[in-house]
Design brief:
- It is a single chain.
- This protein is 51% helix and 11% strand.
- The protein is mainly α.
- The longest helix is centred in the C-terminal third of the chain and has 20 residues, at 82-101.
- The protein starts with 9 loop residues before the first strand and ends in a 13-residue tail after the last helix.
- The model has no long low-confidence stretch (mean pLDDT 90).
């Protein structure tokens, strides 16, 4: 069991739509698998939930984050747009910088934390 306290960077946009590690993971898995269905499945969520999150991501920004190709002879698929790649890279960089900036405080919290059992929680977002 890891004693490391984890940070969770989350941005809430006007209107309430969040951008945090769950959507970043979905973007990474869509890039890796080329499929919303496979990405959602790997995260333990339904295809519908994955599709709704993908749609929400695309509506949050003036540029599309994820592009889809309709099925047919060559099959469908999905991938990150150039903007989506930049968004994912910036988000992951912000996570790293946050952890670096808070390193001393996190170490202090960890050194003073009472041992806890890790709880399995639902997939966020």
């Amino acid at each position: 069991m890891s004693r490391a306290i984890k940070t969770n960077l989350r941005f809430t946009f006007p209107g309430g739509a969040p951008l945090s590690h769950g959507k970043a993971e979905l973007m990474e898995l869509i890039r890796e698998t080329g499929s919303i269905r496979q990405a959602a499945s790997r995260m333990g969520m339904s295809y519908r939930r994955g599709w709704l999150l993908t749609d929400e991501l695309n509506r949050m920004f003036v540029h599309a984050v994820i592009e889809t190709k309709h099925g047919g002879k060559s099959g469908g698929g999905a991938g990150l747009t150039e903007f989506g790649e930049a968004l994912l890279a910036r988000f992951r960089d912000m996570e790293k910088r946050t952890a670096t900036t808070l390193k001393a405080d996190l170490e202090w919290l960890e050194s003073n934390a009472r041992p806890q059992e890790e709880k399995a929680g639902p997939t966020e977002e």
